[in-house]
Amino acid sequence: MKSIRVGHLALFSAALFLFATSSAAFAQTGASDDDKHFVEAALKGGMAEIELGRLATQKGASDDVKMFGQKMVTDHTRLGEKIKAVAVEIGVKPPDTESAGGMATKAKLEVLSGKSFDDAYISAMVKAHEDDLQAFKNEAANGTSPAVKRAAEQGATVVSEHLQMIRKIAQTHNVSAQNPQQSAGPSGL
User: Fold this and answer.
1) Which of 8, 43, 121, 151 is 20 to 30 A from 139 in CA distance terms?
2) DSSP 3-state assignment of 66?
3) Distance separating the N- and C-terminal Cα atoms of the chain
4) CB 65 within 8 A of CB 43
5) How many domains, in total, are found in the chain?
6) Mean pLDDT rounded to a whole number for the chain
7) Owning domain of residue 87
8) With contact defined as beta carbons under 8 Å apart, do 8 and 48 qualify?
């Protein structure tokens, strides 16, 4: 009789374990593959924005470029922390490295100085923020995970503010982001 109870207890424990693990898996599947890709790309792009922002604070020739760079560090660090929490919630491991585009942009900017640096940085930031705003808005409208959609909505607000700022800076510096010679921005999206 005791062995039957132990057997039932073992079976019940196994069923409970399977239920718990399948429930956790189900909770993670509330996010589509597109949602998960967006989160990973947003984190990588944000890491690139932080690195490029740091570079702008060090190499920027004008105060407005340096201040914008610092804002990128501050705002994208804050936004990245929110998106990392969502990543964990949906079962995405936060990336360790920035986007390939971000690394390429950084390599190009590192060899520049003065006005050349400012112009290239401004152009890259306009392009990156235009692309990122579109991606954040798309995810906010079409994502399947409520948590990812909320993060995308919040991100779209931040990116939109940055885009307005960098467009004003571009206008002040007479920089066009439409120059095909400029690299695509750091966006991982």
Assistant:
1) 121
2) helix
3) 61
4) no
5) 2
6) 85
7) 31-172
8) no
